[in-house]
Design a protein that fits this description.
The structure is a homodimer. Chain A contains ten helices and 14 strands.
Chain lengths: ~300, ~300
């Protein structure tokens, strides 16, 4: 089983406005669509759609948390979220005839007791029911109140249980997490630049920054660079994958699809893992919702991806 | 006790974005505020704040409905909503340094059984626990699935229970409702124009249109005309109230404050009722939230309002 952790889960809401969205006026929303979101949940949804056994965990609260829970149930996704008192956040995307505008609510405030309850539940799960977890994916931002070294604590717990740990985070959460030596870190260019203080534009700079990240504690780094593809840096090897094909579509969730591919391929050779990750990431852009991958496109692209270096 | 009915209740959400809201970008919401909303609920909140005994009823569903319920509890408002399966709607107002933009979700879909359940509960309440209701306020839009003559049905039930009926609706819901002879209809200029097919710009045209509305079945009409004040037309009298003072502020909810004043003053002379309604309406503009009235301003303005005609 693969465990994904989403401490700042979100209800992803899409509003479609007919015609053009008008500032400083009242806009009637034509259609509303809700999805359970947040990086770890998106990763879990991809894994579930490929038939992998996955359990999503993290924090959920309030009416928005209850709605996320019922959407996870409707998706048939196994989950074990810990309840908090404050409202989980919503992220709303307004789409109209012209474009898409995002509205990101701040995360819920988590109390010390709630964090402690989650920490204990996570420890218990990974020493009991989920003791045989192959991989633990820690993904996304930390809501206010969660300790900044939360990911470091969880990497320690997951490692003690023998699980492979993948960290996809940003800023201080990433910086502290990396010190606990995760097996794999998956930053994008901006996250890698923020972590290392080095500019990351293109493959050469990303490779250089990823090596700095290794020095900070990561056992391996796969950096996603958008149209420039991906770079893997580990103590043994440096490899590069080009984007197999560029699609117009929804780039949100491409990183989560990549993380899902890397989580389901633990133990396989890097060339295969990177090929899967690049194909999965490119295919996810075709789906309008994060956490959904067009499987046929994925299988077709996987044949086309070339991994360089070694 | 006064009963207010809100068939299309809403969770009113205010998003504050720091700086300027940017189209086609991701905007971080700085602050989120939630209030129970919809016209009938706003009326109930005003009445409750003035110490009047009030019960809010209508339809609520899903996680948004649960949130509205808990906000009503937090406000200390008595309520008896009937549960529906679909999600109650949200109305979001984005405020930034420049202005305010509204996003109105469509209402929930109400099944025939759910409407029947509400109809039966309303009938039961008005013949048992709420049999002594002084007034019933029917306010706001009808969600999809509710019969277009819903207000007419409820006016019949309320009248049979001896309650004074006030209707604040629009379009077909207003047109059908008025045929059941409500004691008072409170349209604004646009609603009155839509009902009568006559242009309504200013006091003279509003008076003429209100007389047409009397002919359609209303026992009395109080039309709210924004800066132009209000006009009352009944078979016995035509009166006019000027806006006592113009405030910059939040005009949403001024009509609901007016309806609340007219509901709590049933049985008193029209001059007093109109003076209260004009003062309440003007004072509500000072509060940032619909359903809240600055009571000191209301008391001061009430001394200043002059009613003309008779």
């Amino acid at each position: 089983v693969i465990v994904t952790v989403t401490l700042n889960a979100a209800l992803d809401v899409t509003y479609r406005v007919k015609g053009e969205f008008a500032l400083d006026e009242t806009n009637r929303v034509d259609r509303v669509a809700d999805h359970a979101g947040g990086k770890g949940i998106n990763v879990a949804r991809v894994l579930h759609s490929f038939g992998d056994e996955v359990v999503a965990t993290g924090l959920l609260g309030g009416c928005t948390g209850a709605r996320i829970r019922s959407l996870l149930d409707a998706d048939g996704l196994r989950h074990r979220f810990v309840r908090i008192a404050d409202e989980s956040r919503r992220t709303t995307v307004l789409t109209d005839a012209v474009g898409a505008t995002g509205l990101w609510e701040p995360g819920p405030v988590v109390t010390e007791e709630e964090w402690r309850a989650f920490h204990d539940a996570f420890t218990h799960d990974l020493t009991h029911d989920l003791a045989h977890a192959r991989a633990v994916v820690l993904a996304g931002s930390l809501p206010p109140g969660v300790p900044i070294d939360a990911y470091a604590q969880m990497i320690g717990i997951a490692r003690a249980a023998g699980a492979y740990t993948i960290l996809d985070a940003d800023g201080a959460a990433l910086r502290h997490g990396i010190e606990a030596h995760p097996d794999l870190v998956k930053p994008n260019a901006a996250e890698l630049a923020g972590l290392t203080g080095e500019p990351v534009d293109g493959v050469a700079q990303a490779t250089r920054a990823a090596k700095i990240a290794l020095g900070m504690g990561a056992a391996a780094v796969v950096a996603t660079l958008g149209d420039a593809g991906m770079v893997l840096v580990s103590p043994d090897t440096t490899r590069q994958v080009r984007q197999p094909q560029r699609f117009d579509g929804n780039p949100v969730g491409a990183g989560d699809a990549c993380t899902a591919a890397l989580a389901r391929s633990v133990g396989r050779p890097w060339d295969e893992r990177l090929r899967d990750a690049a194909a999965m990431s490119a295919a996810s852009v075709l789906a309008p919702v994060a956490g959904v991958v067009d499987q046929e496109t994925y299988r077709r692209l996987r044949q086309l991806v070339a991994v360089e270096g070694g």
